[in-house]
Amino acid sequence: MDPSALLKTRILVIDGATGTELAALNLKPADFGGAQYDGCNEHLNLTLPAAVAGVHDSYLAAGADIIETNTFGATSVVLAEYGLQDKAREINVAAARLARASAEKFSTPEKPRFVAGSLGPTTKALFVTGGITYDEMLQSYRAQAGALLEGGADLLLLETQQDMLNVRAGLTACFGAVKAAGKKVPVILSVTIGLDGKMLSGQDADAMYLAVSHYPLFALGFNCAAGPDEMRARVRRLAAISRFPVFCMPNAGLPLENGSYPETPENFASKIAGFARESRVNIAGGCCGTAPAHIKELARALDGLEPAPAPGATARGFSGVAAVLWDELEPPLLAGERANSIGSKLFRTMIADNKWDEAVSVAIRQAGA
C-alpha cells in the first residue's frame, strides 16, 4: 500500500532511537568487525545483522508504521573515517534489506509497515564548516540514496539536517536517485533546530520552509535537539505556513547531566498527542533517548486521532538566513540595491573576495537608511 493513502486517514508512527538501542547490547569491538571499526553502527549491517534486525523488530512490535534503516552515518563521507567508504553501497543495500525483511514480517493488510531509508547530516557542513565541496556532498548522498532504493526502501528520510546547503545537496540527490530508479518514492525532510530557534546555518522554521517549499516533499518537520515541550512552538508554526504534512521526532526531553533523558514513555506520548489534538502533526516518532516503550505508548496515544488536514493557503515569500513573508508585510517592500551583488559592483566584489564583515556592514547601513 502507498503510504500517501494512509497519511490522509491517520497519523503514522515512525520508530525511535537506533544508536542507543544498539549501545544497550554492550557490543564488543569484534561485533563491529574489529577494533578499527568499533562504534561504527552502520558496519553492523554486515557484521552483526541479527542485532540490527532485533532493533527493527522491537519498534515494529511496539506499533511503528515506519522503521528507519540503520544508515544514519552511511554516506561515503562518514564511512571514510573508518576506511569503509568503498563499502558504502554494500552497507546501505544490506541495511535496507534488513529493514525490508522486518517490515514484511510484521505487515498485515490492516497495518502495512514501511521502510524509510535514513540519510543523516554527515560529519561535514557545507555552509557552517566547509571541508567538502557541494559536488562531493551531492555525489555521496546520491550514491547512498540509490543504494537504499536498491535495497527496498519505501521512503527516503533526509534527517537531522543542520546546514541548508547540505539540505540542498541531499534533496537534489534524493530526487535524482528516485528519478534514476524509475520509482515513485516519497522523500521526507527533517531538520534540527536548536533551543535558540535556529539551524546551525542560521535559518528558523520560516526561513527553512521557504527555502525548500518548491520541492515535492512527502512531509517536512523536525527531529533531535529538543523535547516535545521545546518543539511544540515550531511544530505549530510549521503547520500554519507549510503546504506539506508535518513530521516530528522529538527527543525524550533535554538530556540530564548523567546523559539520561527525563521524559517517560507516558509523558512523551501524551505531549505529542497534544500536537495531534491541535491538528498539527501527520507523522510522529522519537529521537534521542526514546526506546520501544516510548513508541508503544505513542502508537497507543495517537490511535484514532485525526491527522493534520491539508493546508489551505500557505506562506509565500523568500529567505536566505531570514525569511520575508509577503502576507506579513505592510506594503510596499523596499529592496536595498547596495546589498545586491547584481546592483552594486562594490558589493559583488566583497562577496567574491569573501569579505563578509564588510558586506554585512553595507547591509546594516542599508537597512537603517
β-sheet strand percentage? 5-15%
Number of strands: 10
Distance between the termini: 58 Å
Please state the oligomeric state of the protein chains shown: single chain
Outline type: globular
The gyration radius over C-alpha positions equals 21 Å
What is the number of helical segments per DSSP (H or I, 4+ residues)?
A: 14
Structural class based on helices, strands and sheet pairing:
alpha/beta
- The average pLDDT value, as a whole number, equals 94
The stretches of 5 or more residues where confidence is low (pLDDT under 50) are none
Largest sheet: 8 strands, parallel
From N to C, what is the helix and strand string? HEHHHEHHEHEHEHEHEHEHEEHH
Helix content: 40-55%
Sheet with most strands: strand arrangement:
1-8-7-6-5-4-3-2
